Amino acid sequence: MKTVVFDTNVLLTDPNVLFEYSGADIVIPETVLGELDKLKTARVDPDLRFRGREVSRLIFELAKGQSLIEGVEIGEGSTLRVAPLEFGSNKLPEGFTTKSADERILATAYLTDEALPEDHEFVLITNDLNMLLKAQALGLPVEQFGTGSDVSFAKRYVIRPFQRYRVPLTILALAIAVFGAVAFVSWRMVENNANQTPSSAEFRNLLTADQKEAYNNLIALQQNPSDEKALLGLGQFYSRRADYNSDVGDHGAKVVDAKEGVTYYERYLGYVPTDVDARTDMARLFFLSGDTDRAIQEVAQVLEVNPKHVNANYFLGLFYWQGRQDIPAALDQFRLVEELTKSDEFWHGLHEQVRMLIQELENEDQLDTSDTPTDVS
Length: 377
Hints:
α12 runs antiparallel to α13 (292-305). It is globular, with a radius of gyration of 25 Å. The protein is an alpha/beta fold. The chain is built from 16 helices and 6 strands.
């Protein structure tokens, strides 16, 4: 079996590279997951953030609740695993440091190769020229994936735009389908003097899975305005739309979708007030709509019920940081989240992200303190 280690930039070039090497042991350095998580809050090109989210989603789906450290099967005889930077009995070459993310990824690749039998095939895949040169200097087998920007015309101008805009396109298609269905029903009612109408099943069969879910939720609410499942489903739907519009920088659409999602969540929580996960997501939507005070009030309700709710504590830190610019309060929350997630593999990605946020905010706090004039009176 061939062992293949991926650098972050390769996964961002094409997340489906995970399936390009059949019969291989695919290794993702733990540092790569941290870099993907950092993209969620980084001020970078929206398309890059979108691809980062796609990579994280794909890895999560492939894991299916299994341990990525131990490895999971992904088809075609391949396995996928995450490799932490563990030295064991092996050592890095003299003078090699692990201060930067690139150095930690390269170190993980080097130690992975060292732990393999001599006859085992190994390769590091990267599009970073510096890492390529460093790997060659270490005698580490290394290759480029394409050219580092091997995005074909179809992928760049057809596939990716459709992926990025699949939510609004789905809504447009749903609106057209529903309009066509209503028009057809009206025509048949006139044609048959309202004696016969096509069955709703006939219309649903014309819709995609996403359209069916949205259509069914709307129909369910039309028949029963207190349908809890439909209300929650639509709240989550608008939450995803708000996230998407936030990623692409469409502030106006983000606010509109966030407010629409809040409407459905409030109705849902009127029937199921104990659903702390739904209340936490609603708090996040309040924040995205610009209402920081209400967002903090909602997560405070969650934390009264469950002080260790990870997402509620994390979002409260974000609200303090980005909404109120209260760095000390944000640091307190993020340190709590770091403690809550330190020994739980499920929260590993968030744990690493919070650690980086803490370091960033501590540096900001120190700068703010050093810039404050000293009172010498």
